[in-house]
């Protein structure tokens, strides 16, 4: 326990302080606006902390976490996404019946869990972070207690996440039984060295770890929860699940499996490759004829994690950079997309079905424009962040020579255009008769801020990705 | 020349103004922005042509680096322009013809809702098309390529209230996407093998790396050809173009006649070095061209809708261009592209004037006798039809088509087969053109004329008519004095055609023969079609002829064929027989995907226990995979 | 066979049997009581494996707190009204596949692996040493776990709160 | 203690299997939660066994965290179940829709 340890932990400590402050504030005097201000202040302070210490040399704090550039990058990403979620929630919960201040408290704790995941260097950090995230998430999902779908979503996540983390824990136990250490480098070294003669214990442990990771990333066949939960959970929570929980897990994926040379460990490669393949196919097929926008986004997230895995599986130096870039672009895009959904929603009913979006262009041209930009980015149309991400993924894949996955990626993402364009077409169609547009009041400043920032980032990253690529190149060295 | 970037930027700016402020602009202002931006680009383009002619740049091209986009390893795509003779020609066509079509639209679209939206899409299209031809790397070219596809989709479905239009738009989008996918794979292949997408450098490296006629350039060229075939509506991806006529007529004139559909020709000409390394691919280009020009010609003969006649005629004329490309007659192809842009735009605009006058009537059988009602349209349409039919000496179409027909035989890669195909196509062209012409303008009056075209519509008609007649004089065969202004202009960008010295001497004979045959065909169609249909109806329809007519009317049944090809894997045989498969087209892919979707959705029961069970099952699979793979 | 190993197998049988009994009971109270037995068995096993502190914790937290919590809930909810049908036939196929893979994997681990076949030594981690170890090496983990308990507290409080439910229901009646 | 690790792992695996079986097949949310608890307990058992094999305390420390996690998960889970029971008056997950 040295000063340097604390310096390295600055962002996490600031976040923990914010948690304590918000909790005290709620206990003393409930005030929605005060809670939001405190939450944002804490998040911004933590972001500043990231900026302040982000360039320091990597430091391992206890066996548990390593605060290196990659960790700081992902912590920054997580904090940004959390702040965006909090801002989106601001208007969403304003008219909620009863008390809603706990929402922000839970968001902060969940963000902390995600940060721990991003910096994990040890299996204990892995599952503790994961559990903090899960437990806060299912409360966040069930937060709109008046809505049956919301409570149901929380229940499903509770049971399925419980099962998946039990698998993960048992897997970790088996790995520990075989390796004798819980630190990541030792296990990857072991996996690497063992080659052909790798022990079954280790393989089973690895498989169970993949289950834990696959569940959080919603890879097929662990994708069942996605649609119901995206649809049922309150819109800000969905944005959070789709961004924070995924990016934290991707960070972990990088730490866990990136050092492994896939040629030396074909079992791992094939397991992940088949999951990626199935995710791309099943995700896109499920999205094809959906009528619920939130479900479309859910299924498309399954496919996107498949694409991301293609980048990851390519191996070699470009793989990590491509993966990090992809998840960054994806986070920006999804925050924007769910931002639009949230802005159009109210606490008692989310904007969801295609008819809610029909004619949006005529009632809210700017919102429709933003949503279209986000959808085009998801589809990978040039000049958006999503295109660069996908392009980068394909380039990495081509370097790695995994052509069958690349061809699947290209074909399925061509097919995906169909359902993205369906939403776009609906927005530009004439509005339905005798239908009430969800928000008559207009867009709140906080929601508008998030949407503006995300759109600017989307176009900026899409049109001049140089700085971001350089940054990612620096942190992944 | 530091202002090249303005040429695509101006229409783009126009698009942004119209898209963002469209609702608040008056119709007049929208028209000024829409037409003015393209007009300014046209002025700039012609200024650029003069600058080019005045002082030829080194290496035959201006280049301008506007903006570096990304830099990933070897890949450094930038927004950079490469403007050589080929590009300038294309730019001239796009902005020049584009300007007149925009001007025409002011009158044509006057009564429509979505006026600003129309001009916004049109401006976006012009901008994307300019980017396509000006790009100096294949990635930027691809951006323009997809951009024009998107605009085409939006404009075909412009009247979105009618679901049939939406269907046509989707069909166009999906079918061309099949080609685009091939092209994208081609780009990846080129980048993977040669490490660059910069066109000039790519060509250089291709020559240095690959021996002629080896497998790699052939595969790459064939993949690019796939993209070109889709965009240019050649066999086997031609089915979308006739349906694309659902869009407003100026759209058909601009996108589906003059510019976008010729993008495939441009692509092949632009990458001609690669194609020259792959003789097999070139032969494929020629064969596709020859086959398409004949098949589409036959189909055009039987159409009953004036715009569909023109659509099949466009497919057929682009077939000529492909044939020219395939035999290595590069500048002949581009020359025909230019004259075709003039006369086909003219014909579409003329047809638009007729449709407009008849209040939306498109059926040939309900037209007739319009000669006296619409004299100006009649005259200009005649000029266009003569040029399309390549009437000797006085039309631009004659000079360009004659050049292709002759070089199809005389070029080093030419042969008598190509010549026969080209000549046969030329005869067909005469017949179907004048069939349409006589049906529209001769015979008794069938439908009352509602309103005559205004000046914004007639002015473009006149200008294009003049161009259709005179543009050919810039390039005349040796037998007629040997003017070679166009091919010398092109020489900096495209190689001269290699003529077979043994065949060179026969030129006058072949020309007289083809000109004579064209006149003969004109006479035949005069005899056949001058009189209205009713007079011939009695004895004409032998069963064979009727069947043939039906077959050609349906475009050789390609839609039907694709049904069969794509349906089978997906749908049970019983369902094929029960359903009417004639016009569901490539939708069947979607239907197949739907079946998969339904199967997959059945797993999404919303029931917790199912999910938990599937997780346990998935876990078993993953563990099994990890242990035994 | 030493006394230790005898004890181990005896405990293993008790644990497995009582767990099987627990998961097959239709009466929730019976299931929970069986599970308490199973967790007591686990606690003794922990002791046997040299973790006396964990053994105590297992009894206190698992067999004590958690199971009592379950009992409370069961008492709050009128159990008898909610009899469920067991052994749904449709669940057989997944169960069989999973069971097969599981059995294969289990056999592989038991017989295919050399490293862990050797008998394990006897060792004891005294509570004192264990506490030192945890707070010296895993202080950060302890802090983070404390946050985990915090979030569980907040979540349980929020979700279990009765008052809002009523006001919400009231709100529903007068929209 | 003269028992090989494999026997202990087999015991833990057996418990784990019973747990997942319970979580998947039972039609009562409380039993589902109990199943998850059994699985977590099995993991803790495996950790302690592995800890003994390597003569380290790390496994035991992790087992301690596992217990904490189990407690946390159960408390929120049961709160949610109460919440659901109040609304639906049932504990059958199939009826919660």
Report on the structure:
The complex is a heterotetramer of chains A (477), B (629), C (175) and D (97). Chain A is mostly helical. Chain A has a domain at 261-477. Chain A has 21 helices and two strands. The longest helix of chain A is centred in the middle third of the chain and has 32 residues, at 148-179. Chain A starts with a helix and ends with a helix. Chain B has 629 residues and is mostly helical. Chain B is 70% helix and 2% strand. Chain B has helices at residues 6-21, 27-54, 85-108, 115-134, 138-156, 163-194, 199-209, 215-231, 240-243, 249-258, 263-270, 272-276, 279-302, 306-326, 330-357, 375-389, 396-410, 416-441, 455-470, 485-490, 501-504, 507-529, 537-540, 543-553, 558-567, 573-578, 587-602, 608-628, and strands at residues 61-68, 78-84. In chain B, helix 15 runs antiparallel to helix 16 (375-389). Chain B starts with 5 loop residues before the first helix and ends with a helix. The relative contact order of chain B is 0.08. Chain C has 175 residues and is mostly helical. Chain C has two domains: 1-80, Four Helix Bundle (Hemerythrin (Met), subunit A) (Up-down Bundle), CATH 1.20.120; 123-175. Chain C has helices spanning 3-24, 28-48, 52-76, 92-112, 127-137, 139-160, 163-173. In chain C, helix 1 (3-24) runs antiparallel to helix 2 and helix 2 packs antiparallel against helix 3 (52-76). The radius of gyration of chain C is 22 Å and the shape is globular. Chain D is an all-alpha fold and 97 residues long. Chain D has a single domain (5-88), classed as Helix Hairpins. Helices cover 80% and strands 0% of the residues of chain D. Chain D has helices at 5-25, 29-54, 58-88. The interface between C and D is large, with 86 and 69 residues.
List the topology elements.
The complex is a heterotetramer of chains A (477), B (629), C (175) and D (97).
Chain B (H helix, E strand, L loop, with lengths): L5 H16 L5 H28 L6 E8 L9 E7 H24 L6 H20 L3 H19 L6 H32 L4 H11 L5 H17 L8 H4 L5 H10 L4 H8 L1 H5 L2 H24 L3 H21 L3 H28 L17 H15 L6 H15 L5 H26 L13 H16 L14 H6 L10 H4 L2 H23 L7 H4 L2 H11 L4 H10 L5 H6 L8 H16 L5 H21 L1
Antiparallel strand pairs in B: 1-2
Helix pairs in contact in B: 1-2, 1-4, 2-3, 2-4, 3-4, 3-10, 3-15, 3-19, 4-5, 5-6, 5-10, 6-8, 8-11, 8-13, 10-15, 13-14, 13-18, 13-24, 14-15, 14-17, 14-18, 15-16, 15-17, 15-19, 16-18, 16-19, 17-18, 18-22
Chain C lengths: L2 H22 L3 H21 L3 H25 L15 H21 L14 H11 L1 H22 L2 H11 L2
Helix pairs in contact in C: 1-2, 2-3
Chain D lengths: L4 H21 L3 H26 L3 H31 L9
